[in-house]
Structures are given as C-alpha cells and as structure tokens.
Design a protein that fits this description.
It is built from nine helices and ten strands. By secondary structure, the protein is α+β, with helices and mostly antiparallel strands. It has one domain: 2-Layer Sandwich (Alpha-Beta Plaits), CATH 3.30.70. Strands 2, 3, 4, 5, 6, 7, 8 and 10 form an eight-stranded mixed β-sheet that branches. A two-stranded parallel ribbon has the order 1-9.
Amino acid sequence: MSEKEDSTLPASDSKQEDTSQKGSVVDMMLGKSSEKVIDSDTMIKETQQRIWSSLKKGIEYDATVDRSDAYLRQHVHEKQSMVVLYVDLVGSTDITLTLPEEKIAIIISSFAQEMAFAIKHHGGYTLKFVGDAVIGYFVHTSSLIATDNAVSCAKSMIKIIEEGINPILNQYDYPDLFVKIGVDFGTNMIIRYGSDAKKSHVDILGPTMNIAAKIQGKAKPQEILIGEDVYNRIHPSVQKEFSKKEWKENEWKYRSRETGELYPVYYHSN
C-alpha cells in the first residue's frame, strides 16, 4: 500500500467463520486440538545442527515454498480468511560489510529457511522469500486456531534466533541476527498470473498482506506486532502477553472501516 493509497482498513469478515468454530474453540481450550504440539527445545537443537552444517559444508535446505505453491494452485480465484506473517532480518547491511560474500549468502539463506521451518511446524505455509524477509500465511477452518498458530510461530522465531542461530554464529565471531515481525488477519484473494494452471505464477493479494507488512515495518528489533484482528482472536492467556501500542502523532495512520478509528496494534510485552 503506497502513501497515496487509502489508509482505511476493510472490516473484518466475521461472517466467514466456520459454523463448527464453537466446537473447535472448545476443543482448543480443552487441549483437544489436532494441531501438532511443538517441542521448542527439539526445534532449537535441530536449528543449531542445520546452521552448523551450513556454515561448515554449505548444505542446502529443502524447497519449503513448494507446499504453498501447491495449496494456492488448488484455491486459485478464491477469497480466503488467513493470518499473514512478515518476518524481516534487521541490520543485514552491517552483516554484508563485515563478512565474506559466501558466508553472507549462507547465513541469510539459512535464516530464511529456518523461519520457513518454523512456519511449517506451526501449520502455516511459506509464501515467498523477499530479500532477507520471509512471508508466511496460516489458514484454518477456525480463525482462532489460525491466529494462535501464527502468534505461536512468531514467538518461536524469536526463540530460534536467540537460542538457536545466534549461539552458533557467536562461535565463529559472526554478528547476532535480529528480526522484526508483523502479523495481521483478514480476507485475501488467491490469484494466478496467466492461464497455465501448473506454471503460471500464483500469489496472494489483499489488504492483510499490505497491513502486515506495514505493521512489521513499525516493529523494533526482536519485537512482534499484531493487528487488532489478530489480537481479538488469540486465546485470552496469550492476549495477556500483549500490550496496546501507543503511537506518536502521524506515526500510524491506518484506520478501521468498522470504527473509523486508528487500527489498533499490539506488541508482545514479554
């Protein structure tokens, strides 16, 4: 969304919530969700092994974007409610000035793939890699589960950076990595650029993509920012970990179509 575009946000499409949502919510609260439970300690160990191997041997990762491509092709021209997550590497310029080119490529590639692994482990899809940023999305019959998965993923990303990647980089006297994360929820359109069902580029368009990127751009290093449409859907116990962001004058201008007021954003305060 450019500076000249309308900064008013669309109303949340609450009518698209699945009728089975109440059952899903009850199951989630009773711990009966079918979503895979993530062992964060195991994720950290696996991350360290992959990062160490990459720095030593230049090991290549699997193509994690393929899952997203297959999903999008199955749902071309559909409107879907989804949670969009942007994670961007902070200070990559400093890295490029202090390390050899081949090491920079390995570190940034490894970072991106580890973020993609985190997205996959939390039930999401990696849409694309854009420079040193990663864009993921989460879909579920219950938007409550999708938002909880996305926020849990964001918190895991911070932990992976701090406890998985940076300790390995420190062993080589490489600088620490830091990220900024933005998350928002809403309805988006899945589109295909061209008529070839198998080869034409597929992507996601919609205000949620734009606002998640804008939110991420306002985050501080190692900070998670979420839009109100995410905050209102996450579990109450998780809501307690977030505080409402207070903006300086003209620092944030995007308004909700529902209220006409500035669209609230919340930061992870743990």
